[in-house]
Automatic annotation (TrEMBL):
Its main location: membrane. The chain crosses the membrane at residues 111-143, 163-189, 201-225, 254-274, 286-306, 312-336. It is a multi-pass membrane protein. Signal peptide: none annotated. The lineage of its organism: Bacteria, Pseudomonadati, Pseudomonadota, Gammaproteobacteria, Lysobacterales. This is Uncharacterized protein. GO terms for cellular component: plasma membrane.
Amino acid sequence: MNDPLRRLLASRWTWAALLLPLALLLPPIPIDETRYLTATWEMTLSGHWLLPTVNGALYTDKSPFLFWLIASGWKVFGVHTWVARALALAVTWTMLELLRRLARRFALDAAAMWLLAGCAGIAIFASAIMFDLLLAACVLLAMHALLDLDAARWRRGVGVLGAAIGLGVLAKGPVVLLHVMGAALLAPWWSATARAAKARWYGALAAGIGLGAAIALAWLLPAAWLGGPQYWEPLLQKVSGRLHESFAHARPPWWYLPLLPVLLLPWTLALRAPRAAWAALWRERAGRFALAWCVPPFLAFCLISGKQVHYLIPLLPALALAGAVVLAQTGARVAARLYAL
């Protein structure tokens, strides 16, 4: 294979171009995607961007950030389903780029990005009109903020962390904290800076959370004031109900265990490494970071009663980073025949 062709096949733009026809041609899938597009359409028609509605009724199930982005795209390109799908694909591409840059900060190559791009979970949901992709991008941005704090870039770290948390709440609610706090609170395990300056580290975390809350409240308080109790009371009930005895999607605690390996295909079959390579996840800083990032929220999701397979999407970048750590070790490889299958 000549060098120009190899560079083309290794391009993130080529990956996006391969999925673009799906984004352009696939119609909205009931019930969720049609509901989200309805909310965006009513927002566009009414001009009221604070309070989403569906069929004229207040819609408290979801935060508005995705609706805002789609509505903005419609103002530029017209009202088409492909605009929403192309936006989802752009968010997925952003996830890949953020993960590539994150891995580079640990002196790793682009393997993490390609492990994420090639897994079944991303292949299935890359152009889906859903909130989890946007949430995953916000979580990745928060991970960059933690590495800024690790590098003692305190002001930048607090600012980026606050922006990531605030946008994450606007994307899918306070669940963003569940994804971020594992790596943040366990930082002394993977960060020398956090071990040496614990008070300053946790103070910076508190400041970042406060900034994120301020960003989220800049929408939530006016929305609650305009919508009144009929808006904020169902909102609070839904948040608490999904933590305990979910009103919808209630599953047993073990429900995610067989699904996660499926989302990681083909790598669950094709990634081969000796025990010493897997031990690097505990030994090396990047491996500890990846474990602190993905294990606490996964355990929490297993305990929370409401479960859907796409709730795991924000965990896939962490698992891809862990896979890249393993592949960087001696003896680790991808079995080409199993990957082809």
